[in-house]
Structure formats: C-alpha cells, structure tokens
Amino acid sequence: MRRLAARGAAGDAGEVVAPAADGWDSAQARSPSPWRLIGLCAIWDTGVFLPSAAWNGVSSGVERRRLNEAKKVSRRMPLSPRISHPPRKQSLESSYIFYTLSQGGWEMLSSVQEIQLKRFEVTRPRGLGNKERGRVPRMARQPAPPWVHAAFLFCLLGLGGAIEIPMDPSIQNELTQPPTITKQSVKDHIVDPRDNILIECEAKGNPAPSFHWTRNSRFFNIAKDPRVSMRRRSGTLVIDFRSGGRPEEYEGEYQCFARNKFGTALSNRIRLQVSKSPLWPKENLDPVVVQEGAPLTLQCNPPPGLPSPVIFWMSSSMEPIAQDKRVSQGHNGDLYFSNVMLQDMQTDYSCNARFHFTHTIQQKNPFTLKVLTNHPYNDSSLRNHPDMYSARGVAERTPSFMYPQGTASSQMVLRGMDLLLECIASGVPTPDIAWYKKGGDLPSDKAKFENFNKALRITNVSEEDSGEYFCLASNKMGSIRHTISVRVKAAPYWLDEPKNLILAPGEDGRLVCRANGNPKPTVQWMVNGEPLQSAPPNPNREVAGDTIIFRDTQISSRAVYQCNTSNEHGYLLANAFVSVLDVPPRMLSPRNQLIRVILYNRTRLDCPFFGSPIPTLRWFKNGQGSNLDGGNYHVYENGSLEIKMIRKEDQGIYTCVATNILGKAENQVRLEVKDPTRIYRMPEDQVAKRGTTVQLECRVKHDPSLKLTVSWLKDDEPLYIGNRMKREDDSLTIFGVAERDQGSYTCVASTELDQDLAKAYLTVLADQATPTNRLAALPKGRPDRPRDLELTDLAERSVRLTWIPGDDNNSPITDYVVQFEEDQFQPGVWHDHSKYPGSVNSAVLRLSPYVNYQFRVIAINEVGSSHPSLPSERYRTSGAPPESNPGDVKGEGTRKNNMEITWTPMNATSAFGPNLRYIVKWRRRETREAWNNVTVWGSRYVVGQTPVYVPYEIRVQAENDFGKGPEPESVIGYSGEDYPRAAPTEVKVRVMNSTAISLQWNRVYSDTVQGQLREYRAYYWRESSLLKNLWVSQKRQQASFPGDRLRGVVSRLFPYSNYKLEMVVVNGRGDGPRSETKEFTTPEGVPSAPRRFRVRQPNLETINLEWDHPEHPNGIMLGYTLKYVAFNGTKVGKQIVENFSPNQTKFTVQRTDPVSRYRFTLSARTQVGSGEAVTEESPAPPNEAYTNNQADIATQGWFIGLMCAIALLVLILLIVCFIKRSRGGKYPVREKKDVPLGPEDPKEEDGSFDYSDEDNKPLQGSQTSLDGTIKQQESDDSLVDYGEGGEGQFNEDGSFIGQYTVKKDKDETEGNESSEATSPVNAIYSLA
C-alpha cells in the first residue's frame, strides 16, 4: 500500500504527491537545502575548532550579526565578564564562547559557557540538497585563558556565510545584482573570411549592464567604424563586410566589459583570426629514382593554413593510395615506403590538402617513381610468395628508423590533450613495430595503436603518463629501438573556482581562487576590471594569496572580482561578484496550504523562505507558544517540519515563522489526517468448473471523506467487464465461466491519497467423464487453506490463535506453519513465527513488545503446502525497553584519520518500542578516558579526527522511547591506517641458485607501521641479461612475505641476469617507503626447451629435423644434444646421440629401416648442463599398419591350426582326384552339348570327350590368400562345374550316369558353395 507525503520546496511548495511506502528516504533526499552556511568556533585547551555544523538555537543571522558587531566593540572597549545561558532545554554537547548584549553594550563572555545543543547537522557551504547528518565530538570544559579571545576573533575570519538566491522570478527581478558574463566566444576564435564576423558577449545583471570592448588592450571605439555594430541589449559585436573591407584588418585580441553601477565583469581575451587556405607553390617534380627494396620518403610540405589542413595522398586520377604496414602516411603528412617494390611504379603519388573553412582541396603536383630492379618483370604471382623479397632478388636488411631520426628524442604534451608518438622504420622484410613504456605498462584504458602500429595515441594525458616510451622495430634480420622521453606540462586548471558571494550586511565571507598547472600558475586579482593594487583601499578586504577575505561587509562592498591565473601554456579568467543584500524575511510557498496525509505515515511540511540576514525559522501548532522540535517532530535547516509518525492528534494548523533583524514573515499549513484504505475481506483462490458462476469478494474500509474507487485487474492488466461479468462495490461475479477466464484477479481499492490491493487466482476445470471404477484410489492433493482465524487470550507478550482446518484432499495434514507480518519496519513481508503438528488447531504465540502483529496459517501434507489463510485481525503489543543490543559491532578506519563504527540493525521483533535508535560510545583503549557518545538512527557512525591506528573500546546500545537496552559489552576497534613510515633495513640478498635468492632484513619498529602489518613485500625487476643484445622485460614483479617475518625466498628468476630489488612494508593502507635498492646477479642456468621442434619425413629414406633457439638461453649456449632411437611395436633399437653447435638448427637422419619409426629427444645445453627436453616422433609409414597386423597374426596359435586344417583338406582332395583320374577315360555323350565346343577343344571323331589332365587345373592353379582361404582362378575347371551337385553319380566302372552337362557359369558355381561335388567326404562315399 502506498503512503502519502507532502513535498514542498522553493519552486513547488504545497504540491501534494504520493510516493511509495519505501520511497520516503528518496523523498527526504530531495529536501531543499537552507540558503546559508553556518559555522561556530569552538575553543578548548588545545586550540580552535571550527565545525561545519548548524546549531538550532544560535545559528540565525541575528546571532551572526551580533558576533560581528561584538568584534568591533572588542577592538575599542575592555571586555567585562558576563555569562548568558540561552533558554534551551537541551543537553550539553560542547563548550563555546559567545557575546551577549547588555544594557551597557556588547560584551564578550569571559568564561566557557555551557550551551545546550540537541544535535549538529553537517552542511555544505553552497547548493541545494539535503545535508548529511553527523555529530561534533564532545570537547572538554575548560576555563578560557586570555589568548582564547584573540583566537576566537581569528576563527571568525574564516566564517563565510553564503546566501543562495532562490529561482523565484519575482525575487530575481527585484534584487539588485552585479553583472555576470553568461555567454562569450572561445579564446581562439577563427572565422571564415567569406562571412561576417561575430564576437559573442552576453551578460546579465540588475540593472541591465552596458558593454564596451578593448582591442589589443586599447579601447575599441565602435562608433567610429561603420562596419562594426553591437546587438541591442547585448555586447555581441557584428562586423559586416557586405559593403567591402578586408577581414584581416580586424585580427587581434578582443575583450568585453559588462558594467552596471555595482561592478564590471570581463570576458576572456578573445584572439580573432581569419581562416587562411594558401595555394600550393608551383614546382616541377622530377621522377624519383630508387632501387627496389630501398626506403623512400615523399614529402608533402603543405602550405601553412589556419587551421591546419587535413592531408591525404591520392593518384592524379583521384584514386586513393592503398596503405599498409609497408606504405603509410606519417603524422606530418609525408608518405613513407619502408621498402620500395616494383609494383609501386604503377601509379603516381599526389599530396592533397583539405581546408576546413573553405571546404576546398588543393593538390600538389604528383610524384612519379622509377624503380631500378634486378627482376624487371612484375610477376603478380610473386606477391604471394612466402619469401617475396628473395624471389625478386632484393637483399634483406636490418631495420632503421625513417622517423624520428636517431635512437632518442623528446616530446612535450599538455595535460588533457592527446599524446601521439610515431615510429616509422625501413627494412627488408618490412619491420613490425611494438610499443613499450619503461618501468611500467601502457595505459590500456587510454592507449590505442594507429597507422598499422606505427603510432601510439594516449588520450586525455595526465601527469602519470610522463616517462620514457620506446618503439621496437624488428624483422628476421634484427631489431632496433627508439626512446621517446615524454614530459607532461599543464595549462592552468581549476582546483577551486571563485563563486559569487551573497552576504548580509555585517557578515564575513571569502573568495577563493585556486588553480594548478605545470609550471605553477600565478594568481592576479582584479576588481571591476582593474588590478587590485590600483583599486581604492577597502579596510574590510584583505588579500591572502589566492583568497580574499571580507569582514563586516556593507552595501558599499559590492563589486565584481576577477581572478586571472596563468602560466606559459595558457590562462584562466573567472568573475565572481560580492553582493550585499538587506532583505526582510519572505515566504516562497503559497499561503494556507491544505495537506492531507494517511494515518501512521511519515510526512513533511515545507516552508521555504528567504531573507538577508538569514532568518531563523520556528514552527508552532494551533497557535501554541512552544516551538515544535524533538520527539515526534524534527525541523530541517531548510525550514521543513518532519512528523515521523502521523497520529490523529497531529491534525491541526501549523504556523512557520521566519525572523531576522529586519522583520518577520509567517505562513500556515493545515494538516488533515485520514484513515488508511484497507481491504479487510480479500478475494480467495477458487477452482470452478466450466459453465458455473464464480464470485470474488473485495470488501474495503476507507476514510469516508475520501472518494473510493474499486477496480479489477486480470493478469495485471485492466479487466474488461463484459456481459458475463457483474462488478459491484464489494465483489466481482463471473457467469458461465470459460477457459479464457482462468488467471489472476487483482482488486485495487484506491483513493486520491493511497491504495490497497489483493490478488486471487481462478482455475477453470474442463468437463470430465464420471469414472466407472468407484473403487479406484482417490487422487491426493495439497490441503485447502485454513480459515476463520481468531485471536483470543490477549496478553502483553502472548496471544492465542485459533483456526479451522481446510480439507486435507485425501492426504492427512502433518504440520501447520504460523506466519506473522508487521507494518512498521517491513510492511507486507511475512515471516515464519512457529510450527505445530497437524493434530492441533490452536496455539499460544509468544510475542515481542511494540509490534503490530497480523497472522496467517499454512497447512502442510505429503503433497505440499496449502495457500496461506486469510490474515487475522491486527494486534499491537505494548512497548518496552529493548532486551538486547545490535550484533556484529565493528570499528574500522576508512581513512587515516577516522574510524567507522558499524553494526547489524535490530529487526521489528527486537525493537520493542517506537523510534529505535542506537547510543554509540567510544574511547581510546589505553587512556581510559571518558566515553564519547552519540545517538544514531542508522547502522553506522564515523568518528573523525582520530590518531592513526589506535585501539578504541566501542559500545553500541539500543534505545527506544521506553528506555535503553542492557549495558553492552565492549568491542575493540581500530582507527584508520596510514602508509608505513619506514622501510626494512639491512636487506641482505644471497643467491641460492640460478632461479632463486634468499632475503633477510631487519624488522621495522611497530610505531612506524601505522597500521596492521600485513606483509613484507619485495619488488624486483630484471634489469638486463648477461647475454649481449638480448632484450628483456623490465616489468616489476613482487614477492609477498605475510606476517612479521625476517627472511624469505624469491624464486622463478631468470638465470644469467642482472636484477634490482627493493623492500617495503605493507599494511591495510598500502605500501610504505622503499628500501635501498639492492642489485644481484643470477648465475648461469640450464636453457629452456628449444622452440618449434618439427619432424618431417619427405620420403622413406630420410627424416628432416628443424628447431628454433630456446626462448630463454639462461646462459652461454654450448650447443644442442639430440637423442633418437628406432622402434617397431614393442621392439626398441639402440639409442643414438648427436651433439650440435649452438648455431645449428637443422639435421637430417638417414633411415636404416623403412618400417620402423623414430623417437627424437632434443635439448639445449650450457656449462651448467642440459635444459628441458622436447620429444617428437616421426610419422608412421603408410604400410606400417599392414606390416604390424601381418606380423602379429602369424604368431597366433589359432592361425597355425587353421593352416594345418586347410593343408589336410587339400591333401584329401588331391588323393580323391588322383583316384578319379586313374579310373577315367573316354565318356560317351548322349546328346549334344548345350554350348558348342571351340575348335581347339580336343575331341574324338565319335563325339567322345577326352577327360585329360587339363581338367585338373583347379588343383594346380589354386592360390592361398592372406586369410588362408583357397581362391579359384576364373579359367579353372573342377568336377563340380560339370554336374548338378548331388545329382552327379558314378557307375561301377567310374563313368557318369546321365547326360554330360556343360560347365556352369562362374557366378552360379561360386554361389553353390555347398555342392556335394566339392565335398571330399561325398567323393569318398562315391568310391565305395
């Protein structure tokens, strides 16, 4: 449900809004700020304390003015002791010195007065918005020595009361105001010569200012020049050239002056320049002759334009020049060729300049290239050759820099600008460019590479970007580097720009003008455009460097001050006026507002006001004489009155009265309290069959003076009420329910101030057939919600809750869960209270004090949980003091001079009363001093001005309106840490081996750590390698040694290198100072593994090996060791060892066995020994798999047995065939063959067929395959070819019975593998 809060401000006072219930803090954050800064000087025995705080009793302009007048009195008259206690019923918080007015005049109090302060509210000096709240530390009460009075007067000099003028147009137009520049042209104003010149200067002020100009620091008489005019009610200059004239005649430096009777404001010095686009000089360019592969620079040298033109290269036919890492344009406009190739002759090269204002492009005469080459044919196929240069006969060269020249250069850049570093190199092949920063990394968030990595751009340069950068150009022939030293300078930039100062008569103030730059800028003050030194003396004004202090300002002090801060790179000019106003109080909001709010909500009554001196605001109710502040009321500095919890008795008329020495003003606000809107009977979830009628109830209770509106939503969208629906005041009826009616229904009850809503879900069941088996098990479901909750036996700390169980839906209820909701801390959020067995329906609930309870019950069975029951009526328990204190109390510093005390806030059930707050106490642990305390409403408090890292005793005690909680236990916390002040001493380095060192150092004193000692940390970096021409990364690395240790080991170092090391102490704040730099050298170590070890086998006779040098030699390389061995399956040959020189990176192995494979192990070695080895194997030969398989099968037992069986079968077939042959001869054929015989077939004249030895070819020509089977050749004959399987029979003399048949088709024969003629057993039976 929403709650209503009235929001009022200077511009929208009286407007009524309805923020969300949880949005009060955000509404409060929009509270308008007071129109002032208030400060008090507190003095105690250690010095002067100036809190940025406001006091609700002595913070008005009246007291401020009295203090200033008291200063004047104190200068001329002796001080008589007098003590005055302001009539404030508040507790003592600090001790202050004040002045009081007696019948004899103003007198300073001579002793420390006890001023009762309720709270301090930290304020910002200017601007709108709420102020952070904090408390001023309690100060000791001491008598004031004589020097205190002088110190107090000095403290008053720092008070700057600033008044903000509201944006109300009536006030803006009524109040006088010195001029303010609102619009002006840029400092470097470049104009188009074809247009009229416009130099802008706009200003505001009351009365309206007049304008005049200077040109080149001399008065510019506009009336004498007919071309120059000034716009009406403006200082903008217009120079018209329609009637002739040259714009160049008006170039120079202009400055605008805006003046009224209260002062003069100045514009920047505007440098007017006319854009120029000069022509390119005429020149005849001879062809450029260059050798292929040589570097070349084509210079552009564009004419100097204003602003500088944009340069680009094209051919004379207006085709753009393709650029890549070989050919590219430099930042100066020149075209660079890292190496010239023959194809570069195919076009010419022309430099073009595009000018911004004239939008013209000027083209330089084109360059023509003539390339001398050893390979005159421009074969395009060579462009993609892997070694294009050697293919064209171009000699390879190491890189050299074309721009910049030499090995080092320097560059200066201004802060906030872009830094562009450029390195363009020549070489064959084309070099690659890489960028590095010495001693650190490139700023990844600001750095980007351009022009094919030849340029490094760093945007928005700052001081930390200074240092040494270097570019590394490398190709396969070598590398070179160029170092660029970057210096970052800065034009002046604001640290504290002076702001307009509006004071009341007699108030003090100051103008601050702080700027930084490199070099440090100088500050010059001016008043009304004249140097301050030549201005008339003002006794109320004092200049202290970058600050002007005003004391006891009067109406005559009004003026406009200019601060000009400059160095060799630029200047800044700022105007700030001092205006003194004497305005009686006035109200800014509409009069007699009516604000209606909801009961028990928090609200705020706004009363924006204005006046000078700053008025004091007080609130009264129903004309009563007591000021409203404290308890349920809180008055903000801006005049708003907050009522923390609205009650019925808060209804009435509230009057706010603003008072200063010039008068008073008042306004009234009428507050009406309304009852909240509540849905006391909510719609319930329902399950209905299609076609039935459903009624959803929604009964509402509301304030009768407010108009109630009840609406319905379906699935969170507005519900359309059709013919089947009927909406009444307290229900929604749906006739003939259909499937489309299923969904969630929300009842929304709203008034113009608040609303409440309730939701239910409607489930529609489709028609179902009646089950035929009545004995089937009934389906189980979740239980129905409990109903009719009732509260009885009401007591202070307990209540009995009774409910009626719902249907268990064929599954017994096992448990009931009772939940509660309270409407103060977390309204609408339900919490589990207790759990009870399913056999009970009544329970006594234990309650906490001052909680507005509401209960509901959930039933649980084995299927699941029911929907929650409808909530019970509310029951509020009486309040009591808290019985516990917040937990998890901690004290930790977030800065070096503070300590943040935090705790876990207590919830609603442990608050026990309204206005839960926390009393925070702290004191130094060692000193056992008196406790400091403050009352906090949140869950944190920051103690300021603490020593560095000292222990504190901390206590946090809960308190509400009924009293305090139990006395809390002390918790030890620590104030903030500062950076350590000392570095480890006597750092000793001992080299353990080539990659590790041991460190030893002396412990630092504990008082220099200034915090908790986290670790000792070693920063080390590789300065160089002992190997010449080996570039190393100097990136800093670190090794941590946690705890209070005195020795440690640093490992993973690079051998054979020079290192530097520094030690620091680390606490929670960070690193301390660095120790003396130690240098050490690691001895030679073993090298890393050779890189990219490749094994290639071009044929079966040789194997080629190639490798690259190790990435880390780690010493002087003595060579490489290659070990290789041949292997075939499980057989391994003898290992062979080869040693190579350090420069050899190739080797060829002659194979002795074409079947075996080889395993190669390669390592590099130094004097220390061999390093990490890399192992590769030669690729497998194509027939290795077959060979291995064959060798393995031949040794298997089953294969030998199979071969023996086949041999036996063959032997039996041979015997059978021999017997058949011995009985054979000439066999008569009864009929002709189906297929005639050829002429070569042997036959007798009587038609007989000679069965000769040629018929036995299947036995002679049979072959044994690899798998051991017998395969017949296509031309072989056999016995089975001349018969039909088992039908063939022999008679007693061995002749065939039946017709002699022709040989069958080969495919048919092979398909009849089961023929009996092929069986030796059947053949033997036929012989029997």
How would you portray this structure in words?
- With 1328 residues, the chain is mostly beta strands.
- It is 8% helix and 40% strand.
- It is built from twelve helices and 100 strands.
- The strands form 32 sheets. Strands 12, 15, 16, 19, 20 and 21 form a six-stranded mixed beta sheet that branches. Strands 31, 34, 37, 38 and 41 form a five-stranded mixed beta sheet that branches. It has a five-stranded mixed beta sheet with strand order 39-47-46-42-43, with no helix packed on it.
- It is extended.
- The protein starts with a strand and ends with a helix.
- It holds the Pfam family Ig_3.
Rg calculated over all Cα atoms: 52 Å
* Anisotropy-based shape: extended
Let me know the largest β-sheet.
Answer: 6 strands, mixed
Rounded mean pLDDT score? 79
Structural class: mainly beta
Roughly how much helix do the residues carry, as a percent range? under 10%
Strand content: 35-45%
Total number of β-strand segments? 100
What count of helical segments does DSSP give?
12
Which residues form runs of ≥5 with pLDDT under 50?
A: 1-161, 769-776, 1184-1191, 1225-1328
What's the gist of this structure?
The chain is built from twelve helices and 100 strands. The chain has 1328 residues and is mainly beta. 30% of the residues are buried.
Name the descriptors:
1328 residues, mainly beta, 6-stranded mixed beta sheet, disordered C terminus
